[in-house]
TrEMBL record:
PANTHER family: 4-HYDROXY-2-OXOGLUTARATE ALDOLASE, MITOCHONDRIAL (PTHR12128:SF66), DIHYDRODIPICOLINATE SYNTHASE (PTHR12128)
Organismal lineage: Bacteria, Pseudomonadati, Pseudomonadota, Gammaproteobacteria, Methylococcales
Subcellular location: Cytoplasm
Protein name: 4-hydroxy-tetrahydrodipicolinate synthase
Subunit structure: Homotetramer; dimer of dimers.
Gene that this sequence comes from: dapA
Swiss-Prot/TrEMBL site (Part of a proton relay during catalysis) positions: 44, 107
Catalytic activity: L-aspartate 4-semialdehyde + pyruvate = (2S,4S)-4-hydroxy-2,3,4,5-tetrahydrodipicolinate + H2O + H(+)
Major localisation: cytoplasm
Tagged with keyword Lyase: yes
PROSITE patterns found in the cross-reference section: DHDPS_1, DHDPS_2
Gene source species: Methylomonas koyamae
Length: 291
């Protein structure tokens, strides 16, 4: 089971919006040096919605190549079209990804049965470990614990990223799935409590900026050391808040650029962080020791 700090990696881009593979390689090395436990390539934080299929798969393949087996690479392969999700998942497996992360179909607003059949179809089509991803604030649909419990019985479905911030779902999902099913948070602000309650880690945005602190905090929380986890998380509270001062990944890409790791490329309809937000994000970075 993949556990700990799983960074939802930003996709570096040049000023004209092209994927910057040299910067991607720097990011991979940075995270391995800083103790990141696994990386998500081209998740929603990686601007998956605005990369075409070939770009999407090239970033996954490059991430696998750059990591070279040192930590797991999870490929973002979700889509609101089941056939597209299957195609992306097949290509991620061919590229050598260790697992896939599939966001719930967005905009369509499927029923719980539709969600069940969607994920079941992908899992039956591609033999690779698959992680469900529930983020109703972005997708317009909520993958309920009962549906997660049904899906946990499907071969290849090994975990869920639960990004509602509802801490009660840790126990609800665990009771419906069992100890071998991975439960990750996608909400940085509540990740400490989530892991103290038995979660297996965080698929984190904050980890892009303060990877060592996030790794150490989650490690402490997963071993039940509240005092140590809280002491570290106190330094991260500003980032948990200010990295969402505008739509993700706008603030986090600005912060990683401010660290000198990537350039200033971002794809429309997203735009660069507005100047009035620079100082609040910088203050949060300083609090975490990232500047």
């Amino acid at each position: 089971m993949i556990q700990g700090s799983i960074v939802a990696l930003v996709t570096p881009m040049t000023d004209d919006g092209a994927v910057d593979f040299a910067a991607l390689k720097r990011l991979v090395e940075f995270h391995i040096e800083q103790g990141t436990d696994a990386l998500v390539a081209v998740g929603t934080t990686g601007e998956s919605a605005t990369l075409d299929e070939d770009e999407h798969c090239r970033v996954i393949q490059a991430s696998v190549e750059y990591v070279a087996g040192r930590i797991p690479v999870i490929a973002g392969t979700g889509a609101n079209c089941t056939r597209e999700a299957i195609a992306l998942t097949r290509r991620a497996k061919a590229a050598g990804a260790d697992a896939c992360l599939l966001v719930t179909p967005y905009y369509n607003k499927p029923t719980q049965q539709g969600l069940y059949l969607h994920y079941k179809a992908v899992a039956e089509a591609v033999d690779i470990p698959q992680i469900l991803y529930n983020v109703p604030g972005r997708t317009g649909c909520d993958l309920l614990p009962e549906t997660v419990g049904r899906l946990a019985q499907v071969e290849n479905i090994v975990g869920v990223k639960e990004a509602t911030g509802k801490l009660e779902r840790v126990r609800q999902i665990r009771d419906l799935t069992g100890a071998e099913f991975a439960i990750y948070t996608g909400d940085d602000a509540t990740s400490l409590e989530f892991c103290l309650l038995g979660g297996n880690g965080s698929i984190t945005v904050t980890g892009n900026v303060a990877p060592r602190l996030v790794h150490d905090m989650l490690t402490a929380a997963m071993r039940g050391d509240r005092a140590a986890a809280e002491a570290i998380d106190a330094k991260l509270q500003g980032l948990h808040a200010k990295l969402f001062i505008q739509s993700n990944p706008i603030p986090v890409k600005w912060a990683v650029a401010e660290m000198g790791l990537i350039g200033t490329g971002i794809r429309l309809p997203l735009t660069w962080l507005t100047e009035d937000c620079y100082d609040p994000v910088r203050a949060a970075m300083r609090q975490a020791g990232a500047l």
